[in-house]
Structures are given as C-alpha cells and as structure tokens.
Amino acid sequence: MRSITLALAGLLMLTAAGVRADETIYQPAPMVDNGLNDLTKPSTQHGMLGLGYTTSLIENTGLQNGVLVSARYFTGDKWYALGEVEMATYSTNTLVADDSVNVPDDSTRYALGMGYSLLQGNASVSGKTVMPFVLAVELAAGEQSFGDTGGLYLSGGISTQVHWKKYWGALGIRQFNLDENAQPLINSEWGIQWDIQLGFWF
Amino acid sequence: MHFRGRTWPFLQILMVFLLAASPAQAEQDYIPLRSGPSEAFPVIAEITPDLKVRAIKRRGSWFLLTDERKQGWLHADQLYRITSLGSDQQSLLMNISRPGKTRLEAGFSSENEVFAGVSAFFRDYRLYGRYTHASTGSSGWSLAEAGLIRTFARMGDSFSFNWSAGLGAGQDEDGNRHWHTEKDTIVPVASVSADAVWHAEQRFEIGVRTSWQLAITEERQNYPAVSLFWNLRL
Questions:
Q1: Which domains does chain B have, with CATH numbers?
Q2: Are A106 and A161 within one domain?
Q3: Which of A46, A144, A197, B125 could cross-link A52 (Cys pair, CB 3.0–4.6 Å)?
Q4: CA-CA distance, A137 to A174, in Å (whole number)?
Q5: At residue B167, what are phi and psi to the nearest 5 degrees?
Q6: Residues B159-179: pLDDT tens digits?
Q7: Do the domain assignments include residue A181?
Q8: B61 vs B86, B213, B223, CA distance in Å?
Q9: What DSSP designation does B63 have?
Q10: Which residues have a Cβ under 8 Å from the Cβ of B49 and sit 6 or more positions away?
Q11: Does ipTM come in above 0.85?
C-alpha cells in the first residue's frame, strides 16, 4: 500500500513538473523590426464630385435651367476624365414653331468626356493666402432626351476651377450640339450653356 | 606653437583657400514643393532632403508632403531625393502611384453611337466588355459585346496600335430598324476593329477606332463606323 502511495505521489510530482516544464518552454513571438509596420499610406484623391446649376440657351427656344451632377477623375498632371448628368426643365417658356405652340418636355442628359488643364496657377485675393486654380478645356459626348425623343449630345467648353483643401468651385461655359432628331418639333441643333458648380474631393 | 618663417605664409594661403572653399561644400540641396499636383503650379516651399516629412495625400503620381508646418506637392519621381522618408516608404509610395491593369473606356462614333466599356489584361491580350447605345429621335438601338484586344505595333512610348474582335448581342428599341429585327428580338453580332491610341498621360489615352459590325442574320447586314474614344487606366 505504501509503495502504491509513493508511486502515485511520484507520478503526481512528475506530472506537476511536466506542467511546469511546459510553462517554461521559451516560445518567442516573431518581433522583427524591419520598419515596414511604420510605413504610412497617404489618402488618395481620385477626383472631384460636383453639384451645379446650369442655364442653357438652345437654338429656337428660351432659357432652360437645370441641375448638373458631375464627376472628374484625375488621370495625370493635365488630363482628367469627365462624367455628367443633367436634369433641366423649361420653366415658363413656350415655343412657337410652325405656327403651333409647343411646350417641350423636361430634358435629361448624360455625357462622358475629358478635360485638359490649359492653365494651372495660384489665385490670390489678399496676397496672404493662395488657392490653386485651373482653366481647363472640356469635351464630352453623350445623349440628351426630351421626353420621348433623344439624340447624340456633343459639347466643348471651358471650365475655370478653384481648388480649396476640401472643396472646389467652378464656372463653366460650353457650346453643345444636339442631334437633329432630339427636338424635331422645334428644330434645335445647338445651344450655349453656363454653369456654376461646387463640390468636394473623393 | 611656433612656425618657421617659411611655413607661416604657406599656412595662411591654405587657410584662405579652405575658407573660400567652405561655402561650396555647405551648399544645400533644396527640393521644391508646388501648390498643386503639376509642374505648372508654382513652387510654394522648399525642403531639405533630411527634413522629416510625411505624405498625407496622393493624386495620380503626385504626393502632398507636410512637415506639420508647411506643405506642398512633389512628383513620385522626386521622392528618392527625400532621404528622411527611407527606402521602404519611398518604394511603397512609388508602388501605389503606378496605374493598375484595368481600363475604362468611353467614346462616340460617326453612327450617333455612345459607348462605354471596361478592359483588363489577360496574358498578352486584354479582355473587354462594351455597351453601345444610339438614340435616334424617338427610337434607338443597343449592343452589348465582349472580346479580345491585342496590341500589334507601337511607336515609341506615345502611340500604340491595336486590333480587337468580339461577339455580342444587338437589340432594336421602340421600332428602330437598325438591326433589321422585329421588336425585342436579340441579334447576334460579330465585330472587329482597329485602334490607333495616343498615350496622352500615364493614366489617360485617346484613340481613333475603325470598326465593322456584322449582324449574324439572314440579311447579314454590316455596319462600319469611325469612333473617337478615351481610356482611363485605373
């Protein structure tokens, strides 16, 4: 009986020792200071999103006011890609064509294009703070629809942009051409548009 | 310390030369930072290579650097001059400034078409998908296609020439007879094209395309067109 007790006590001690031995096994965590953990990635400015107000003067029609949503994606120092969606409405204008009065439908258009920065520089009013400005030529192609009709839309114009740290603003003017099928009743094939836009970087 | 009569004038001349030479040795390398991400923007700050700076924004291949007091833009090609950044950080910034392998495409054609697409590299080719739509008054037509683009010639780094071939599905809308189909009928279409592309910038390309589309129907109508398009490398 005593030998059994001693044997059990010995086994218990060995087990306890084994547990302690496991606990004291040196298991170092890989701590290699290669500096890679300190690297920081800057945030990326892909482009600019904007919301604008437009006024268009279309051939044989009155003024048309609209809302413009635009996106510009930077592709390099000078060029950027352009995407636009515009919703415009004839407010109080009625049109007389071929001795009949036509009230054109509201128009919707989308266009994809490109911009090229002709001038880049600093704008300053007080001389103490400066803001980068860009004067760019923009070309776009898309479709414009007037209710049940629509056609190819092509535009070319100039956009003057001021860049703040978080926001940007732009004034633009463009001439656009409409497919002759877009507004068959009023026979409009071109127009001029002014726009003012404000937006932010994304 | 005593100098002999002949040694002292020699030392005087040597000291004059050393003093004259010292300003040239101390000439510092200054790195210009610009107000915007382009060479056309004016320089608004200069930093020394060992000044501790960090990049807080990237736009294309340009980085907005700051030392917490002043900030300005520097092109990725100039990052190597900033010794305080370290080679690992420089490599990271260089890598993220490079364009990826995906291209977005948009354009319009002589046939009143507007199209948009996407392409990505697949071995020596690029796989593309493209959607074309034409609106002609109160009706229109569309084409969705996919295929392969292959560059067969280059002219320096600025121009390349591609051919492409694809298959797609065309559909007339609202009674249009472009594809010579009944309403809502989908027509299989084969297309081939040749592009001349100008690589305007690292991420931007402008091209001219001559294309030929064939409606695979009994009438075998074909549709040639010339397009202007632009590619955006993401």
A1: 31-96 (2.30.30), 102-233 (2.40.160.20)
A2: yes
A3: A197
A4: 9
A5: -125, 145
A6: 999 999 999 999 988 878 888
A7: yes
A8: 18, 38, 41
A9: E
A10: B29, B31, B81, B82, B83, B84
A11: no
Tell me the CATH number at A127. Answer: 2.40.160.20
A104 touches B: beta carbon within 8 Å: no
A67 Cβ under 8 Å from any chain B Cβ: no
Where in the sequence is the domain holding A102, given as residue range(s)?
49-201
Say yes or no: A33 contacts chain B, CB-CB below 8 A. no
Q: Do A91 and A63 share a structural domain? A: yes
Number of domains in chain A: 2
Report yes or no: B48 and B30 within 8 Å, Cβ to Cβ.
yes
Tens of pLDDT, residues B52-90: 888 999 988 899 999 888 889 999 989 889 888 888 888
Q: Which long-range contacts (CB under 8 A, 24 or more apart) does B116-123 make?
A: B116/A112, B119/B149, B122/B148
**B159-173 and B186-201: which strand pairing?**
antiparallel
Residues A20 and A72 in one domain: no
> Using an 8 Å Cβ cutoff, are B191 and B165 in contact?
yes
**Which residue among B60, B88, B140 places its CB closest to the CB of A39?**
B88
Region for residue B60 given its phi and psi (left: phi exceeds 0; alpha: psi -120 to 50; beta: otherwise): left
Of A119, A132, A151, the CB nearest to B112: A151
Q: What is the DSSP letter of B137?
A: B
Strands of the sheet with A43-44, listed across from one edge: A43-44, B54-59, B62-66, B71-75, B31-34, B43-47
> Is the residue at A81 inside a domain?
yes
Q: How many residues does chain B have?
A: 234
